[in-house]
Design goal:
The chain is of the alpha+beta class. Helix content is 22%, strand content 22%. The protein is built from 13 helices and 29 strands. The chain has an eight-stranded mixed sheet, sandwiched between helices. It has a seven-stranded antiparallel sheet with strand order 1-2-3-6-12-8-9, with no helix packed on it. The protein is flat, with a radius of gyration of 44 Å.
């Protein structure tokens, strides 16, 4: 195998010194053994020399299989978990297998179903690889170390594919976001620089403070403060999305909840505590290899300038007679547990410990993905260098310090084993390649983690109302009734309104009930348009009595309707089948015929019964001839006459 190196200028931010991609592969083309000359299409080109990139070495171990070695954190070879690299110069329908062979954490979310992310030039939304193509196992070939293997197929030649552990959030992206928010909310958003990192990157400080300052400070009327810290570990990028959701929620000028919080509580947010480690693509350490979340108890201005600046700010506000620091929350992303949960501390003072449990319980009611099984409160000496444990001793007793953990993958639905990954628009299936890989679309994690940030702000609102710091306004002011969208405009109403006529007062009387006798007659005669005629006969005056009437037109007296009518009618039919209506008593005039209403009905179905067993040659024509039908009618006539005579007798 031969490796050809191509060096290019990495994409750095304006505040960087151009050291991005330190120790990463930079435009490395991997060729098969025995090949020389110009690289051909299909000789993959790997690159991690960009902001947040991490890939140290690539080995071709088969015809289409590659072993990938992650670059350890700068000055600390212990941590190797974060990866972020690109692949190009691919061939269409090319299939490969990538093996990440040197991960230092054997216990992680890959055992629970988490898969790497991928995106391409024409498809910029991050997508998770399907679980059927990802394997996490112990490999005897690699000294029984755990190996992450995943298969992939490249479907377009001119695309640049990028793979990552979880959704990246770079230092440059944070700067661009803060610039946009500063322009959009200049009245509520205050941005300042708290300090500088070792490589001279800004330690940003965001402040939301609309609290009215009294002329004379009273110890009873102190100003309450909340401090939020995030991204002390560079590889825990979901914490940045939580901070972004919190910032957007608090910056909204017209949001009643945000306005109430800003007018009564001061918020101090440090969105990125380790900007150097984020830029370099480290997993846990800063540029000199120190895990900052184990260094709070041994601060140094030279090795931990960002922590020293935050600690100085906390000391000033905690010792001030005007401010009271209520919360210090450190945001993290967990690589081996699912859901959202909180780590707290234990105290010898029972009342302080009970007060310490209030906020986690309130937060659990706001988050549907909160996992109480992973929540933990302890006083472990091994964690003495963490912010959660150090601030308990360094700050006053009024301060509640927590570690808020968000899973890198997702959470399990309540009472099920279904892993729901954090997504923007849910899970969708999309064919990213022509090798029939069904890739689960997990669009940007932004919305899901930002929702956690908004829930965090709502928990602060409920907590300060619970402690009588915030007044409880009416519900209508907190949740105004939503009007119809602007797209739905009501119809223009005429200015002139029609007068409403008053209904006249009338006496209430019961309406007379009229009985109607309906009869449907199907016969051979049809109406002018070719449809059979339906005859409706109404009830006459009281002296007429009930009767059925037959139309005075030529019709078949042996039809089914005539036979049924003759069975139940009191009419007298003569040989010419004319209707004789009985005269009313005491009158000499014949009653008038009631009106006849004619309605169109579906055509009458005709059915002829033929005994096919008695048919001979030409018998079908004879059976359906007119003479045969006349003979059948004569039989029916005799049968009917016999029944009527017997009934009269």
């Amino acid at each position: 195998m031969s490796v050809l190196f191509f060096f290019s200028a990495p994409t750095d931010s304006d505040d960087s010194d151009g050291e991005g991609g330190l120790g990463n592969v930079s435009r490395v083309i991997v060729r098969p053994p025995g090949h020389s000359g110009k690289a051909k299409r299909g000789h993959l080109c790997f690159d991690a020399a960009f902001e947040t990139g991490n890939l140290g070495r690539v080995d071709l171990v088969g015809e289409f299989e590659y072993d990938l070695f992650l670059r350890p954190d700068t000055c600390n070879p212990r941590y190797r978990f974060w990866f972020n690299f690109t692949v190009d110069n691919v061939k269409q329908d090319q299939r490969v297998i990538f093996n990440i062979v040197n991960m230092n954490k054997s216990r992680n979310l890959f055992k629970d179903g988490m898969t790497p992310l991928v995106k391409s030039t024409s498809r910029p939304k991050w997508q998770r690889l399907p679980r059927c193509e990802v394997f996490y196992y112990k490999s005897p070939v690699h000294q029984n170390h755990y190996v992450l293997s995943f298969a992939f197929g490249f479907d377009k030649e001119d695309e640049v594919y990028q793979f990552a552990l979880t959704f990246p959030y770079s230092y440059s992206k944070m700067q661009a976001y803060l610039n946009a928010v500063e322009l959009k909310f200049p009245d509520t958003f205050e941005r300042s620089t708290l300090g500088m990192s070792i490589q001279n990157r800004k330690l940003e400080l965001i402040t939301f403070d609309d609290v009215k300052k009294p002329d004379k400070m009273d110890p009873k009327n102190v100003i309450h403060m909340v401090v939020i810290l995030a991204r002390i570990h560079p590889g825990e990028s979901p914490a940045s999305y939580v901070v972004q959701g919190l910032i957007e929620f608090l910056a909204a000028a017209n949001q009643p909840i945000s306005k109430a919080l800003r007018e009564h509580v001061v918020f101090k947010i440090v969105p990125m505590l380790n900007p150097d480690g984020v830029f370099l693509g480290n997993n846990r350490c800063n540029v000199i290899g120190h895990d900052l979340n184990r260094s709070w108890n041994k601060l140094s201005q030279y090795t931990h300038p960002t922590l020293s600046a935050v600690m100085k700010m906390l000391k000033e506000y905690d010792n001030s007679s005007c401010y009271q620091v209520d919360f210090v929350i450190d945001l993290h992303a967990h690589s081996s547990l699912t859901g959202t949960f909180i780590y707290g501390s234990t105290y010898d003072n029972v009342y302080r410990y009970e007060r310490h449990l209030v906020f986690p319980k309130l937060f659990a009611t706001k988050c549907e993905d909160f996992c109480q099984e992973h929540m933990m409160f302890n006083a472990d000496d091994r964690k003495s260098g963490t912010a959660r444990r150090y601030f308990v001793e360094a700050l006053s007793d009024n301060v509640n310090t927590y570690t808020l953990e968000v899973s890198m993958c997702g959470y399990f639905l309540n009472g099920t084993n279904i892993l729901t990954q954090y997504t923007e628009d849910g899970c969708m299936c999309q064919n990213l390649s022509k090798i029939r890989l069904c890739i689960v679309l997990t669009l940007d994690r932004l919305v899901s983690d930002m929702r956690i940030g908004r829930n965090l702000a709502r928990t602060f609102l409920e907590y300060y109302r619970f402690t009588n710091i915030l007044p409880i306004p009416p519900v209508d002011e907190l949740r105004p009734r939503k009007g119809r969208p602007r797209t739905h405009r009501p119809r223009a109403r005429s200015k002139t309104r029609s007068e409403v006529r008053v209904r006249p007062k009338t006496t209430r009387a019961y309406a007379p009930i009229s009985y109607t006798d309906l009869s449907i007659c199907y016969d051979s005669a049809t109406s002018e348009d070719g449809s059979p005629v339906r005859y409706m006969y109404g009830q006459g005056n009281a002296g007429y009595g009930g009767f059925r009437m037959r139309p005075l037109i030529h019709q078949d007296q042996f039809s089914l309707s005539n036979i049924q009518a003759a069975r139940f009618s009191n009419l007298d039919f003569t040989s010419d089948f004319r209707l004789k209506v009985p005269k009313a008593k005491g009158t000499s005039q014949e009653p008038k015929m009631p009106p006849i209403e004619m309605l169109n009905v579906p055509p009458k179905p005709h059915l002829t019964i033929i005994d096919f067993n008695q048919l001979t040659r030409g018998g079908l024509d004879e059976a359906t001839s007119g003479k045969t039908i006349e003979r059948e009618k004569e039989k029916i006539r005799r049968h009917t006459t016999h029944k009527s005579s017997s009934r009269k007798a």
